[in-house]
Write a structure and sequence with these properties.
The complex is a heterodimer of chains A (about 110) and B (about 120).
Chain A (H helix, E strand, L loop, with lengths): L4 E3 L2 E5 L4 E6 L7 E6 L6 E6 L5 E4 L2 E5 L5 E6 L8 E9 L5 E4 L3 E6 L1
Parallel strand pairs in A: 2-11
Antiparallel strand pairs in A: 1-3, 3-8, 4-5, 4-9, 6-7, 7-8, 9-10, 9-11
Chain B lengths: L3 E4 L2 E4 L5 E7 L6 E7 L5 E8 L5 E2 L8 E7 L2 E6 L8 E8 L8 E3 L3 E5 L1
Parallel strand pairs in B: 2-11
Antiparallel strand pairs in B: 1-3, 3-8, 4-5, 4-9, 5-6, 7-8, 9-10, 9-11
The chains are: A mainly beta (about 110), B mainly beta (about 120).
Amino acid sequence: TQLLEQSPQFLSIQEGENLTVYCNSSSVFSSLQWYRQEPGEGPVLLVTVVTGGEVKKLKRLTFQFGDARKDSSLHITAAQPGDTGLYLCAGLFSGGYNKLIFGAGTRLAVHP
Amino acid sequence: GAVVSQHPSRVICKSGTSVKIECRSLDFQATTMFWYRQFPKQSLMLMATSNEGSKATYEQGVEKDKFLINHASLTLSTLTVTSAHPEDSSFYICSASFGGLNTGELFFGEGSRLTVL
């Protein structure tokens, strides 16, 4: 059972378009992280959101944590080919001991 | 910033052999290390959590005897895939935290790609 549902799984868009990736769960997370991963490399942390309703911006990327801390979204404005990659959300799960659980990922392709 | 290094980055082995992958935290002491497995075009699946000086905690469905994890020091954890088979071919990624897993305190290695022939 996937604790974190991520959608869409694949996204192919043209340069300049906007997009939103969603991460949903029935569980409450104490924090949620977004990562970006290039082929053959480990994931790189983009942002951590902790407080319900929190919004963080990283240049053209806007991250939001749901009020109930069960969902999050990543919005990219004016996507560029350099944004192409695998975007992963990950929730800090505290069921007994802390561990980071990843969503299925969204594979984004931005075409010039 | 903190760096976590994995070695080897790529390994090819014959079916039935054992392969060891090392994960080192280069500039901090990692009290906890996590091992993930990633199949092509899929996400990271947590295999086990390793605490220095104690036995690893394995996720459901992960065979303890097949994936041996040792965390002998605060800077080194090893994953040994015993009697590897082609279905064990995957991208293995470790991550390390210091002072417990809190917000933003998890660092990932570059990953190790295992191919079993």
